Amino acid sequence: MYLFALICGVFLVAAALMDAYQTIILPRRPVGGVRITRLFFIATWTPWRAIGDITRDRKKREQWYSTYGPVSLLLLIALWASLLVMGFAFLYFGLHAPVTGVLKTDTAFAQFRSCLYLSGTTLFTLGIGDVLPTSHMARVLIVTESGTGLGFFALVIGYVPVLYTTFSHREVTVALLDSRAGSPPTATELIVRHNFNGGHHALTTVLAEWERWAAEMLETHISYPILCYYRSQHDNQSWLSAATAVLDTCALLITAIEGPSTRQAQLTFAMARHMLVDLGHVFKREEVEKQIRDAPSVRLKDEEFARMCDVLAETGFVLCADLRVRERLDAIRKLYEPHACAMAQYLRLDLPMWVAPPPDPNRKPDAWSTVAGMSSPAALAERLSTHISTQAGSSRLHDDSHL
C-alpha cells in the first residue's frame, strides 16, 4: 500500500508540473494526446457546450459560452494545485515521513488525512507550525514542496496578465474590421467599402495588417489554446468570423478580382489558412474537417453567389461574366472552409456570410454609412444648416427664459 502511494505521489507531482510547464512556459504546441489540460477541457467544455445548446435565447446562450474561458482558467489553476497537494501527500504517506501529530498507531486513513493537511499548508506556505517534520527526509520534502508552491504561484501570477494582454491585442484588430467590413464582417462589404480612389492601396494595407495578425495568432494561440475559448465583447464579433471574412476576401481577390491587392491577398491567405490548420491540430479536429470536406458546402449557395455578383457589379466588379470564376472560387474555398467550419462547430461560433443581408428599415443603420454620408457636400451642407437652425432656436429659447 505504501509503495503504491509513493508511486502515485511521484506520478501526480510529475504530471502536474509537466502539464503546467507545457501550458504556461513551453512556447510551442505540446505533444502527446493524453494531457491533463486536454482532458480537463474535454471534461468541462463538452457539458458546458451542451447546456448552452439547450438555451433558446441567443443572447443568454452567448453569455453562457463567454463565461467559460475565464471560469476554465480558474478551474485549471485549481486543478493543478489540487494535484500537487495530493501528490505530495501521497509522498509523505508512502515514505512514512515522521512528523508531529501523526502517530504510527493511527489508521491509514487518519495518517493520510494528516499528510494531506501537511501538504496543503506547505504548498500554500501557510506556516501554521502545528505539524512539523522530525526527520531529514520529511524536512527535504517540505522544503521542496514549499519551493514548488512559490514557483507555481509565481508562474500563475505572470500567466494571467500575458493571457489578457494577448486577448486584448487580438480583439483590437477584430474591432477595427467593423468599419471596414461591417458587423458581422463579410468579404463583399470589405471590397465594396474600399471601392474609391486609392482603395486598392488601402485594402492592401488592411490585408497586410491581417497577415501579421494571423502570424501573431499562430504564435500566441498555439502556445495558449485557452484563448480560443475567450469570446469577443460584442455578439456580432469573433476572431473566427473575422479571420474567415478576410480569407473569403482573399479568395475573391485571388480568383476573381485582378488588381494591386492580389499579391498581398495571396500572402494573407497563406498565413491565415496556416493559422486555422494548426489550431485544428491543437483541438484534434482532423476527423471533423475530413467529414466537412467530403460533405456538400453549406456556405455560398447559388442564391448568395448571385446576390454577391449583383452587389459587386454595382461597384464595377463583374464576376458572373466568367463561368470559371465559381469553379476557381469553390476550389480555393476547400483549402480553408473545412478548418473554419470545424472550429466554428467546436467553439459554437458563427461563420460570416459572403454578402451582407438586404437593408432592414427596422435595424439601426451602420455607423460607417452615417459617417460616409457626411462626405457628400450636399449632405454635409444639410447637416450644417440643421445644426445652425437648432443652435439658433436654442438661443432664442434661452433668451426668452429671461423675459
- The domain count comes to 2
Radius of gyration from CA coordinates: 29 Å
Low-confidence stretches: 386-403
Query: What proportion strand?
Result: under 5%
Order of helices and strands: HHHHHHHHHHHHHHHHH
What class would the helix/strand composition place it in? mainly alpha
End-to-end span in angstroms? Answer: 98 Å
Rounded mean pLDDT score: 83
Any idea what the shape is?
elongated
Largest sheet: none
Secondary structure: number of strands: 0
The amount of helix comes to 55-70%
Number of helices: 17
Characteristic key phrases:
403 residues, mainly alpha, 2 domains, 0% strand
Layout: helices, strands, pairs:
Elements: H1 2-25, H2 36-53, H3 58-66, H4 68-94, H5 108-123, H6 136-176, H7 178-181, H8 187-192, H9 199-223, H10 239-255, H11 262-282, H12 286-294, H13 302-314, H14 324-333, H15 337-347, H16 367-373, H17 377-400
Helix pairs in contact: 1-4, 1-6, 2-3, 4-5, 4-6, 9-11, 10-11, 10-14, 11-15, 12-15
Structure description:
- By secondary structure, this protein is mostly helical.
- The protein folds into two domains: 2-157, Helix Hairpins; 177-347, no CATH class.
- 70% of the residues lie in helices and 0% in strands.
- It is built from 17 helices and no strands.
- It has helices at residues 2-25, 36-53, 58-66, 68-94, 108-123, 136-176, 178-181, 187-192, 199-223, 239-255, 262-282, 286-294, 302-314, 324-333, 337-347, 367-373, 377-400.
- Helix 1 (2-25) packs antiparallel against helix 4, helix 1 (2-25) packs parallel to helix 6 and helix 10 (239-255) packs antiparallel against helix 14.
- The chain is elongated.
- Mean pLDDT is 83; it is low at 386-403.
